[in-house]
Design a protein that fits this description.
The complex is a heterodimer of chains A (about 230) and B (about 375). The radius of gyration of chain A is 20 Å and the shape is globular. In chain A, strands 1, 2, 5, 6, 7, 8, 11, 12, 15, 16 and 17 form an eleven-stranded antiparallel β-sheet that branches. Chain A is built from one helix and 17 strands. The longest helix of chain A is centred in the N-terminal third of the chain and has 23 residues, at about 1-25. Chain A has two domains: about 1-25; about 30-230, no CATH class. In chain A, strand 13 (about 165-170) and strand 14 (about 170-175) form a beta hairpin. Chain A has one helix spanning about 1-25, and strands spanning about 35, 40-45, 45-50, 50-55, 55-65, 70, 85, 95, 125, 130-135, 150-155, 155-160, 165-170, 170-175, 190-195, 200-210, 220-230. In chain A, about 10% of the residues lie in helices and about 40% in strands. By secondary structure, chain B is α+β, with helices and mostly antiparallel strands. Chain B has two domains: about 1-35 and about 340-375; about 45-325, no CATH class. Helices cover about 20% and strands about 25% of the residues of chain B. Chain B is built from two helices and 20 strands. In chain B, the strands form four sheets. In chain B, strands 1, 2, 5, 6, 7, 8, 11, 12, 15, 16, 17 and 20 form a twelve-stranded antiparallel β-sheet that branches. A four-stranded antiparallel β-sheet of chain B has the order 9-10-13-14, with no helix packed on it. In chain B, strand 18 (about 240) and strand 19 form a beta hairpin. Chain B is elongated, with a radius of gyration of 27 Å. Classes of the chains: A mainly beta (about 230), B alpha+beta (about 375). The interface of A and B includes residues 76, 84, 129 and 172 of A.
């Protein structure tokens, strides 16, 4: 009996820590201030107000360009005055889910090459052909395995990996993760970063990912996701 | 009875003549209009550099139409590297050969790209940035995209109207190849692909060549490009070209005046939308040096209007006397009758002829019988 009590007493702190973590888990902060955000990063639709662009959007940088100076690829289908911005709208699941995949459907394209994935974002027209986003266990461009997206917060700053993030367009796939599925960060590829307000759960996530191989080799996608995080239940 | 037989034979003969005549005429009509006689222009279509003014492009340029779009209404692909305020125009300038050479190839070099994916072919046009990566044009005996054999470019002048074949015309960009010929290497003209058309002023050598070609397969499948080449035609050495006076003018020695075209002002520019006629104004006021002359300082103006040509603005077509060249049958103008229809009409004509022969034979036989009957009586 005494031994059992001693054992329970010895395990109690461990159990308490574990319980604490579980409770504070998705959106809260642990004692160290760093934790994983598991749930849905609900996306705010992109919008343009004169030169200002808010919400969720995408830009493509030409080879040898830079995030600061471009040159940026014009999408004639953009609803912005500045056609280098392609606005996004949340998909059927509201946005990006961490801790699990939101894969491409089968088939992934319609007859015209328009992408059909609609969980994360609604397919958007890009040079007259719909493109979309998915996170697949096996990256469709490289064929390599990619972990499900993970995002952490530390003192209001976001970090993480989004290796599985993939764009589909005109029957082609372009890995747009950071890092890439092989763990590298080629060219303009930058780590995922952003901000998180634990009170409002408002977030901003940004990263860039250079296309490796294929027809747009050397082009880079700049991703800007904004919205509200909703922890998983 | 005999009278009835005679009448029947006559009817048969008339019917046969009618069918045969119609058949032969139809066959001729089907072949003839589609086979406009023309003069092949062998030499270099030197290129006038593209230019922009007030959002309108002139000279030599390219415009890319998005998948599902039309030449007339777009939507067009914007090239962020375009020098025009309307980024959908990508201006082109002459390459080391001065422009497009007919009857021979201007292949891409080996390697065709640098380490950044920039295309290196520089004979027809100078490589020009397209979304941060330089693209170039070339004509190869084996099309790099499809692997199919293609003929060397040919352009035919028919009374000032150009037609031709640029199956081997290809674009290279970012380590990729896109056939941009018309027709395509397999002879088809898919989607927005339109025949080579244009105008030629035999007095000045000024020309406009236009065509569209839809990309088939690859990353830009379904996109198409509208090509507008303007400048002056320089005949190949040893050949002659139609001259204004009707007398043949000898061509200059090779390479004599390629460079001159680059100093010429912009030529005719027209939006694809106005290309329904397939021809554009070449400016009657052109004062270019004649093809065959040194062309130094020549102003190969082909006009700068963007509207479809009126009859008055058509190039002044002179006598097309060609000494060293030969007349060919160009099948690009007019209606190309399907093979089955030609066969059918030819068969009808044969039946008609057979009917005529049979009727003739019947008539002669009848006459012989009548003659015997008369003698017997």
């Amino acid at each position: 009996m005494i031994r059992r009590l001693l054992t329970v007493a010895a395990l109690a702190p461990l159990l308490a820590i574990t319980a604490g973590l579980a409770i504070s888990g998705p959106a809260g902060a642990n004692s160290s201030g760093r934790h994983t955000l598991i749930g849905t990063f609900k996306l705010t639709p992109g919008a343009c107000f004169a030169a200002a662009v808010t919400g969720t959007y995408f830009r493509m940088i030409s080879p040898n360009g830079s995030v600061a100076n471009g040159k940026y690829f014009d999408n004639p289908d953009s609803t912005c005055a500045n056609k280098t911005y392609t606005l996004a709208e949340p998909g059927t699941q509201g946005g990006l889910i961490t801790g699990k995949y939101q894969p491409n459907p089968t088939p992934a394209f319609n007859a015209q090459g328009g992408a059909l994935a609609d969980s994360i974002v609604q397919p958007q027209s890009f040079t007259a052909i719909n493109f979309s986003i998915a996170t697949d266990k096996k990256d469709p461009q490289t064929g390599e395995s990619a972990p499900a997206p993970t995002i952490k917060v530390n003192g209001g700053k976001l970090s993480g990996q989004i290796e599985a993030w993939s764009a589909a367009w005109n029957k082609l796939y372009f890995n747009q993760g950071s890092p890439k599925p092989n763990g590298s960060r080629p060219g303009l590829t930058t780590p995922l970063s952003g901000t998180y307000n634990s009170s409002t759960r408002a977030f901003v996530l940004t990263w860039t990912s250079q296309v490796v191989g294929g027809p747009f080799n050397g082009f880079t996608g700049y991703w800007h996701l904004a919205g509200t995080f909703v922890p998983a239940r | 009875m005999r009278q009835l037989g005679r009448t029947g034979s006559r009817r048969w003969r008339r019917f046969g003549v009618l069918v045969a005549g119609l058949g032969l005429a139809s066959t001729g009509l089907m072949v003839a209009p589609a086979s406009a006689v023309g003069t092949p222009l062998v030499g270099t279509f030197t290129i006038t550099p593209g230019a922009c003014s007030g959002g309108v492009a002139s000279g030599t340029y390219l415009r890319m139409v998005l998948s599902g779009g039309t030449n007339a209404a777009g939507p067009y692909f914007s090239n962020s590297d375009s020098a025009c305020s309307d980024n959908t125009y990508t201006l082109l300038s002459p390459g080391s050969a001065g422009g497009l050479v007919t009857a021979s190839y201007q292949p891409q070099p080996t390697p065709a790209f640098d380490s950044s994916g920039n295309a290196l072919a520089d004979q027809i046009t100078t490589p020009v940035p397209f979304e941060g990566v330089k693209f170039a044009t070339a004509t190869n005996p084996v099309d790099p995209q499809t692997g199919l054999h293609t003929p060397a470019p040919s352009v035919v002048d028919n009374g000032g109207a150009l037609s031709g074949n640029v199956q081997s015309f290809g674009v290279s960009w970012n380590n990729q190849e896109f056939n941009q010929g018309s027709p395509k290497p397999d002879g088809s003209s898919p989607g927005n692909t339109t025949p080579v058309t244009g105008t030629y002023n035999s007095s000045t050598g000024a020309y406009v060549l236009q065509w569209s070609s839809q990309v088939v397969g690859g990353p830009f499948n379904g996109f198409s490009a509208f090509w507008n080449l303007t400048g002056r035609f320089i005949p190949a050495a040893g050949t002659t070209v139609p001259a204004a006076s009707g007398s043949a003018v000898s061509a200059p020695s090779a390479g004599a005046s390629h460079g001159a075209s680059s100093s010429a002002p912009a030529g005719s520019g027209r939006s694809p939308g106005s290309s329904s006629s397939g021809r554009s104004s070449s400016g009657s006021g052109a004062t270019a040096a004649r093809p065959g002359s040194s062309a130094t300082g020549g102003t190969a103006s082909t006009g700068s209007t963007t509207h479809a040509p009126s009859k008055a603005s058509r190039p002044t077509t002179k006598t097309h006397t060609v000494v060293s060249s030969h007349t060919v049958v160009a099948g690009s103008d007019g209606w190309d009758a399907p093979t089955w229809l030609v066969v059918l009409v030819a068969a009808l004509a044969a039946i008609g002829l057979a009917g005529v022969l049979w009727a003739e034979r019947q008539l002669r036989r009848q006459r012989t019988i009548d003659h015997i009957d008369v003698k017997g009586a």
